[in-house]
Amino acid sequence: MRILITICARGGSKGVPDKNIRPLAGQPLLAYTIDTAQRWRAQLSDAEVEVILSTDSEKIKAVARECGLATDYTRPAELATDQAGKIGAIAAALHHAEAERAVIYDYVLDLDVTAPLRSLDDLHQSLQRMEAQPEALNLFSVSPPHRNPYFNMVELREDGYAQLVKPPRGQVLSRQAAPPVYDMNASFYFFRRRFFELGHESAITDRSLVHLMDHICFDIDHPLDYEIMDFLVREDKLDFSL
Question: What are the tens digits of pLDDT across the range 26-61?
């Protein structure tokens, strides 16, 4: 089995400037994802696993090198804009790695730098799930939601009045009674090689699996998210081991 781990870290973050390399509990944020990739690779003795960094930033390349991941690959400029989707960046890194190494990978695992709160068990369980369901194209990590579109999430109709995002069949009087839904927490994505051959542009397909995390996980989108994550890691307040 051949697995390519992609770590995508562009340099143009506006919400939290330089967030991919900003220190978190004494280490660059990027270091946590590199460490997870290397430790997981070391545990897969029956697989060939490679790691590639996809970035447009020389500064990020330099920090990654200090963290043990050197690369000569530079993400194309058109895939490093605010409008560019992540799937395209992952596909470009995959094609570069396959051409450079003259191999075809069976799976791609994308580890998100800004959502590093994951465990090696999360990754092992997810790979096992993918292998057990060969018809699945991909799998992504999710968490229990804070809101439910069947109960307490609304949208505005054209007439200006509010309605539930997903009106349920029958009346739902509590969130616990609503149909289960999940938050995509962006921490990691497994892709079967065929996913990219089919040209998908979104991680949500008609054959997508989810891995429900049983511990805290969230993405850094706002400066306050960073402060919360820094506190949790620095003060050892996580409900699992990184």
Answer: 999 999 999 999 999 999 989 999 999 999 999 999
Task: Tell me which DSSP letter residue 106 carries.
Answer: S
Q: Where are the domains of the chain?
A: 2-144+182-234, 145-180
- Count of alpha carbons within 13 Å of 168, Cβ hemisphere only? 17
Q: Cβ of 83: how many Cβ atoms within 10 Å?
A: 5
Report which of 135, 155, 117 is spatially closest to residue 239, judged by C-alpha positions: 117
- pTM exceeds 0.85, yes or no: yes
- In this structure, the number of other CB atoms found within 10 A of the CB of residue 137 comes to 22
Q: Which residue has the tokens 């963290």?
A: 67
Average pLDDT over residues 53-81: 93
Which residue in 114, 102, 108 sits closest to 32, CA to CA? Answer: 114
Model confidence pLDDT, tens digit, residues 157-188: 999 999 999 988 888 888 888 899 999 999 99
Tell me the residue ranges of DSSP E strands in 98-238. 107-111, 138-143, 154-156, 162-164, 183-192, 208-212
Residue pair 102/144 in contact (Cβ under 8 Å)? The answer is: no
d(Cα 182, Cα 148) in Å, to the nearest integer? Answer: 8
CA gap 134, 132 in Å, rounded: 6
Please report, for residues 32, 74, 150, the alpha-carbon distance to residue 107 in angstroms, rounded to integers and kept in the order given.
22, 21, 34
Fold of 2-144+182-234: Spore Coat Polysaccharide Biosynthesis Protein SpsA; Chain A (3.90.550)
